[in-house]
TrEMBL record:
UniProt xrefs under SUPFAM superfamilies: D-aminoacid aminotransferase-like PLP-dependent enzymes (SSF56752)
Name this polypeptide is given: Branched-chain-amino-acid aminotransferase
Pathway: Amino-acid biosynthesis; L-leucine biosynthesis; L-leucine from 3-methyl-2-oxobutanoate: step 4/4; Amino-acid biosynthesis; L-valine biosynthesis; L-valine from pyruvate: step 4/4; Amino-acid biosynthesis; L-isoleucine biosynthesis; L-isoleucine from 2-oxobutanoate: step 4/4
Any one GO biological process: L-leucine biosynthetic process
Enzyme class: transferase
Amino acid sequence: MADATILDFEYEAHTSPVAGADRAALLANPGFGKIFTDHMAVIRYSADKGWHDARIEPRRPIQLDPACAVLHYAQEIFEGLKAYRMPDGGATLFRADANARRFAESARRMAMPELPEQLFLSSIRELVSTDRDWIPEGDGASLYLRPFMFASETFLGVRPAQEYLYLVIASPAGAYFKGGAPSVTLWVSEHYTRAAPGGTGAAKCGGNYAASLVAQAEAIGHECDQVVFLDAAENRYVEELGGMNVFFVFDDGSIQTPPLTGTILPGITRESLLTLARDTGITVREERYSLDEWKADAASGRLREAFACGTAAVVTPIGRVQGRGFDFTIGNGGPGLLTEQLRQQLVSIQRGTAPDPHGWVERLF
């Protein structure tokens, strides 16, 4: 079996890529997750060959057998990271090695083969290099990268599959939330939970997001931007949003976020913000925080700010929280000073306009 960490990528050029003028028009206002670049990275896995057949090829539909294992047993994981355009025209990746490690951790939890970290990173670098002209410029713009893997074996038995397909697709991205509102409104889910102890909450798998969609639909029905979930055991403690981690900022300047107990996704943006906060001397707590405390602290003024964070949304202020029988505002309902400070620190490092003391940024070209 070949050493999967040193696979060479074969390259198949797109015969009819998007024309330059058309691409420029698309990049002027890409939105989020609707526009895709010309190519994709593909690597195959089988139990007998291991990882093999690494390719950069034109983005095109995937042909699946109706008995494909992922369609029946949902063995699937994914990641999300970004390439950023630098002021001099180059491009950077932010903490892609952390995404590679989390991808392997998700694979272990879902009984899937672990993609070697260097092969994960090579697939990202090769695709970004190939489709470099698709990286948009401007504040808040980036090239969103979606690595994912699924069970591709044609088989209906309930067991881990023997064949998998790993791909990376890329999508020019603008703001995650529509309308450019200064803050978002959350809906507290009363009947649904995202994950339970011993489950897949810490894995980045599609099933977690599928389970959250009915609660997200409920949030939208109440004209809220996102759902926030409480813990499954007591239905008291704040855990995370449908697709983001959450932070609280108090009147003494300290910040708090729910601890990683196996039911919360270990966000890379979350970890980065904790590090930046500690670097600047901010007191940081990773402790449970109940809905009752959230209500009381918002009413008393002890809670000054709250924000959500993730790769797609970066750092997003939370202005208002609603649920059945309650509706409260945090601070002045808009972005807070510490929220903006942390966001600016993070974005400046990501885009190469500020020092990178932790070695998080990799320049690609």
